[in-house]
Amino acid sequence: MSETQNTPITIPNELLPVDGRFGSGPSKVRPEQLEYLNKNSHLLGTSHRQKPIKKIVAGIQEKMATLFALPSDYEVLLTNGGASLMWDAASFSVIKNKSAHAVYGEFSSRFAAISKKAPHLDEPLIVEAQPGIAAYLKTDSSVDTYCLTHNETSTGVMVSPYRVGDEQSVVMIDATSGAGSCAVDPLLYDMYYFSPQKCFGADGGIVFALCSPAMIARIESVDRYAPAILDLKTTIENSRLNQTLNTPALTTLFLVDSQLDWLLENGGMDFAHKRCSDSSSQLYTWAENHELTSPFVTNTEERSLVTATIDIAESIDAEDVVATLRANGIVDCDPYRKLGRNQIRVATFPSVDPDDISQLIKSLDFVITALA
């Protein structure tokens, strides 16, 4: 806490959420996922090339195809590493000559920087917006790969995926924190890729990529050396065998499988969307009506379903708010470190109970009043 806030503040129990985990990644893991993991603990230590694990992977691929309503000719690829690995892989295995990047936060900027530094690629087209505002791409005849971000975890800006380019180009969408929160038409993308430590309540270490036939054809057509882990041809080959090149984190696979079962059994993407919308709308409505808070993203159409960023009046140190919440068991409401704003950031992934968001708001009211 700051020097001006040295007296501990105790939030009354009746105002506290049942579960105080609101981190934007890694995210809350539901107890039922851990029960599922424990039920399958006898498989931990099994080779990922053996039938029991390959069966789990095949099931995940099938459930992903169902949850995301993929056309029958789309493929669910998976490989080691987080979604950030896909940026490097794309520089070797997807982008032929020139990419275009919509940049509106830390993670979209990192992909653009990788493409810019790649010595074998042309200078990328970068359209950048200020944090809190989305940037959008337009068709450019010199571009063969368009790179979008569904949800910018660093700022809480979320855009509706859209198709850009022509029949010769492909669209990649980084969906790490957006995937699993709302339905997206598969015809709008050629690759929709994400790590599972957000909406899927798992650990990192694996990246999933939902790919169109055009993306598969693009990967197979790029004739360029790539390190094995970044060679998406190798990813295709292994994914079709229900495995990854190197040993994956088996715990992650089990957590993802359990989360997929939970989502599908409760209504799939409609269920996830309703929970995320309920939670995030509660926070935005509260922030708009409180005299000392406001939503960071001013355009209501670009406010995230899963990453609510709320500015706090300068008269109150947001670090004190976050520290007080943590001292009372409400954790990881910190803003993104590089954004440098006096704000809080709250994850509203499907695993987060909207009732806990209601309680969080009561706790925030109490803390802000005490600090004011």
Mean pLDDT: 96
Strand tally is 12
Structural class: alpha/beta
- The geometry reads as globular
What would your notes on this structure say?
With 372 residues, this protein is of the alpha/beta class. It is built from 10 helices and 12 strands. It has helices spanning 31-39, 51-67, 83-93, 106-117, 213-221, 232-239, 250-265, 269-289, 318-327, 354-371, and strands at residues 75-80, 99-103, 125-128, 145-149, 151-152, 157-158, 170-174, 191-194, 206-211, 293-295, 307-312, 343-347. It has a 7-stranded mixed sheet with strand order 1-9-8-7-4-2-3, sandwiched between helices. It has a 3-stranded antiparallel sheet with strand order 10-11-12. Helix 4 (106-117) links the parallel strand 2 (99-103) and strand 3 (125-128). Helix 1 (31-39) crosses helix 7 (250-265), helix 2 (51-67) runs parallel beside helix 7 (250-265) and helix 3 (83-93) packs parallel to helix 4.
Summary of the model, kept short:
With 372 residues, the chain is α/β, with parallel strands linked by helices. It has helices at residues 31-39, 51-67, 83-93, 106-117, 213-221, 232-239, 250-265, 269-289, 318-327, 354-371; strands at 75-80, 99-103, 125-128, 145-149, 151-152, 157-158, 170-174, 191-194, 206-211, 293-295, 307-312, 343-347.
Break the fold down into its secondary structure elements and pairings.
Blueprint: H1 31-39, H2 51-67, E1 75-80, H3 83-93, E2 99-103, H4 106-117, E3 125-128, E4 145-149, E5 151-152, E6 157-158, E7 170-174, E8 191-194, E9 206-211, H5 213-221, H6 232-239, H7 250-265, H8 269-289, E10 293-295, E11 307-312, H9 318-327, E12 343-347, H10 354-371
Parallel strand pairs: 2-3, 2-4, 4-7, 7-8
Antiparallel strand pairs: 1-9, 5-6, 8-9, 10-11, 11-12
Helix pairs in contact: 1-7, 2-7, 3-4, 8-10, 9-10
